[in-house]
Amino acid sequence: MKPLLSKCTKLKWPLITIAVLGAIGYGVYKKPPFTTVHSNELGIRTNLLTGNTTQFKQGSAIVIPGINSFKRISLKDRVLQPKAIASSASKEALQSLEGLSIGANVIIRYNVNETNLLNTYASIPDNDKQVVESAFYGIAYKIFSKYTVREIFSSKRDEITETLENSLKPLLAHDGLALKSIQLGSIDLPSDYRKGMDSLLAEELASEKMRYTIELQKKKLQAKELEAESEKQRREIAAQAEAKTQIIAAQAQEEAMKHIIPFKQRQIEQRKLEAEADTAARIQEAQGNAKARIIEADGEASARKKLAESDAYRIEQIGKANANQMAKEGELISKHPGLIQKAMVDKLSDKIQVIIAPPSTSGFVGDNLLGNGSRD
Amino acid sequence: MLFTSVVATVAMNTAIVIQDQSSMLSAPKDSARQQAILWSGELVEVRGEKQNYLQIYDYKRERPGYILKSKVKTLNLSEQEAPQLLSALRYVQYQDNSEALSIGIAAAWLQSATTNVINGSEGAEVFNILGLKAQQLADKASRDIQLGNYAAARQAAYFDVVKGYGVKFNSYEYGDKIRVCYGGEAFRRVLALPATDEQKADAAIALTRSECSDPNLSVTDKQIVNQWQADILDKVDDTKLPAWKANQIKLRRAIVWSNLAFRRTLMEKEEAGKTATMAAENAIVSLAGVNKEELIESDLKDYNNAIMAVNASRWALLPKNNSPLTKAGKNLYVEVIPKETGESCVTLLDEKHNLEKHLAQRCTFSKVWLSSATKNKENTALSIAVQPTEQWRELWVFYKKGDNWDINILPPAPSTPDIGYAEFAGWVPGGKKILVAQEARSEGKYYPARYIIMDIGSLSAERQHNTSSELGAFKRWQDPSWKQQSVSIR
Lengths: 376, 490
Known about the structure:
The structure holds two protein chains of two kinds.
Chain A: H1 2-30, E1 34-37, E2 41-47, E3 53-56, E4 59-62, E5 68-74, E6 78-80, E7 94-95, E8 101-112, H2 117-120, H3 128-144, H4 149-155, H5 157-174, E9 177-188, H6 191-335, H7 339-347
Helix pairs in contact in A: 3-5
Chain B: H1 4-9, E1 14-17, E2 22-25, E3 34-38, E4 43-50, E5 53-58, E6 63-68, E7 72-75, H2 82-92, H3 99-112, H4 115-118, H5 121-142, H6 149-164, E8 169-174, E9 177-182, H7 185-192, H8 197-207, H9 219-234, H10 243-266, H11 270-288, H12 300-312, E10 333-338, E11 344-349, E12 360-364, E13 367-375, E14 381-389, E15 392-401, E16 404-410, E17 419-428, E18 433-442, E19 445-455, E20 461-465, H13 472-477, H14 480-485
Parallel strand pairs in B: 15-17
Antiparallel strand pairs in B: 1-4, 1-7, 2-3, 4-5, 5-6, 8-9, 10-11, 11-12, 13-14, 14-15, 15-16, 17-18, 18-19, 19-20
Helix pairs in contact in B: 2-3, 3-5, 3-6, 5-6, 5-7, 5-8, 7-8, 8-10, 9-10, 10-11, 10-12
C-alpha cells in the first residue's frame, strides 16, 4: 500500500498543475478574455482594480474577467415616438392655450454624445428611451399650452419645434445624450374643431391664395413695366445711336461741301480772270479792228482819189485823143465824104445786102435804107 | 392695294377707251355738247347703244354721256376674254404713248383671268408690262424738257388714268428738280411669280434704281434698303440672261454692294468689318464680270457710275484697318484717333513726335481709310483716302511747308458731293509733285476720268490727260499698287 501511496504522493502536484491548467484552458475556451467592438459602436473598458477607463473603437479588446468590465455603446441614431400624446382622445393628450385637448405626432431623434464619452458614459441610462420620453413630456405640456390650436396646427409649427428642441437638448445632454432633431408631424384635433378649423384654414388659404395671386399680378405688372422700360431705353439708345449716325453722316457731307468751296472759289476766280482776259482781248481786238478799218478806209479813200485822178487824167487824155482823132477825121471826111457811108456799111452785118447809093437830098446816107427816102 | 379700285369700277358691260381725247357727248350726235374728254385706257360702263354711239357712264367723273363706238372697245371681262386681252397688250405695249392704254388693258386682264392664271407665267408677263409702262410714264414726267400743250395735257391725263387703277408713284426732290418714280409693286409681284429670268432681271433693275431711292431716308434705313436691293439682285441668275442684260444686273450689283461696303464699315462691330470686306469683294467681282463688248450705249452712264462707286469704296476690301506705314525708323506714319463726338482725328507722327505733340492733325466725320496711307520717298508728303459719303472719296495730302506741316484736300470735282473719287496714283521723285486720278458726276454733269500731275503744295494741275498712258510721268512713276487695285483705268 505504501509504495502505491508514495507513488500517488509523487504524482499529486503534476496532476494538480494539469488540472489547474486544464481548468484555466477550459475557462479561456469557454469564456475567452477578448471582446470585439463593431462598427457604429464604442467600447469602454474599466479596470475594476484601479478604476481606469479605456475607449475602443472598431476592433478587439482584452477583457479579463474579474479585472475588467466592458461596456458597448451603440452610436446609431435612436428614434422615439411618444405614443401617449399622439391622439387628442388620449388621457395624456396635450393641452392648447384654449384648453383644448390635442394630439401631436412627434418624432424625436437623438444619439449618444460622443464627445467626452469617457467621463459621461456612466450617466448614460440603459433605458434611454424612457428617460428621453419622460424628459420630453416634462417640457411638451408646458410648451404646447402656450400656443393656440391654430398656431400649433399651422402658423407656429416651426417656432414650437424649435422651442421643443432648445428645451430638450440640455436635459438630454445631462444624461450623455445628444438631441438631433424633433419633428412635429400631424396634429390630431377634436373632430368638431377639426371641421371648423379646416374651413377656416380653407378660407385663409383662399385669402392667402388671393393675396399671392394679387402679388403675382403685381409682379407681372412690374415685370411688364420693367420690360417696357428696358424696351423704351433700348429704343431710346437705338434712336440716339441712329440720330448720332445721321448727324455724323450729315456732318461728313457738310465737310465734303466745305472742301469743295476753295475749289469753287478758285474756279470762280479763274472764270473771272478768264472773263477779264476775254474782255481785254475783245477790246484789243475791237481797237485793232477799228484801227484796221480806219487804215483800210484811208487807204481806200486815197486809192479812190488816185483812181479818180487817174480816171480824170485818162478821160482828159481820151478827150484830147478823141478831139485830135475827130479833127483828123473831120479833115479826112472833108477830103473824102464817102467815107461815112463806108464806115456805116462796115458796122452792119454781113447778112445785110448793102447797096451804095448816092447821098440823099437830106444828106444822110442811111435814109434810103431806113425807108426815110419814101417819105417824099 | 393695286387694282382694288378696278374691281369696284368694272361692271358686266364695260368699255375701255382706245383713243386719246375721245369726246363724251351729251347726245348721240356729233353736234351735241361735249361732256368730257376721255383718254386712252379709261374704263367706262356701257348702259346702252344708239345708232353708232354707246351710252356710257363715267364713274370717275360721275357723269353719263355718249361716245362713238369706234373710240372704245367693249369688254365683258370674262375668263374667255383674257387671252384676247393679253394678245392686245403684247402689241399695244410697243406703241408710243401707250402707257395708260397698256395699263388699262393689263387691269382688264387681271379682272378677267382666273387666280391660277394670274399666279402663273402669264401673270408675271402682265405685271412686268404693267411695271415697265408705269416706269416709262414716270421717266417721261421726270425728263427735263419743256412739253407742248397737248403733250403736257396728255401726260397729266395718263397719270390720272393709271392712278385710278391703283398704280402709285413717288416724287423726290433733288435740288431744284423733281424725280417721279413708280412705286414698284408690279415688279415685286413679278419676283414672286414664276417669271422668266429676263422678266426677273427687268424687275430687279427697276427696283434698284439709285435715282428712285428716297433721299430723305435715314442712314440706317438706307442700309436696310440697300441690303434688300442686294438680295433682290442676287436672286437673278445672270448666266441665263443675254450678255447686255446680264451687264445691267452686274452694274447694279456693283453699285449696291459698294454702298453696302461703305455703310457696313461705319458699323462698330467687328463682324460688320468682315461683312464689309465681303460686300466690297462682291462689288468688285460684279464690276469685273461686266462684258464691255456687249455694253449698250444707254448703259454707259451706269457703267461709269458703277466704276466710280466701286472705286470710292474699294478700300473696304482690305480687312485690316491698319496703316501700312510702320512706326519703325524715321518714317512718317499716321494714326486715327476716334473722338466721342464721332469724329476721327487723322494724326501725322514720326519717331520724334507723339499723340500729344504731333506733326499735324485734322479731324473729320468722314471714314478715314487708314490702309490707304502712303508717303513719298523724301518723307515730305503723305496721302490718305477719306470718304465722306458712300460714293464720294477725297484725297488728303499732308505736306511739309518749311518746318511745319500743312494739309491739302482734293475732292473728286469742284461740285456738290454726289458720286466720284480723287485718288493717289503715285509720287513723282523730288517731293514736289503727286500723280492723281479724278472722276465724278455731280449736279447732272459728268467729269470724265482724268489723270493729273499735281503740285503737292497747291494741288493745282500741271498736266492732265484722259488716258494715263499719254502722260510720261504716269508711265514712269505710277504706284504699282494703285494700278493693281484701282478700277479707274477701264
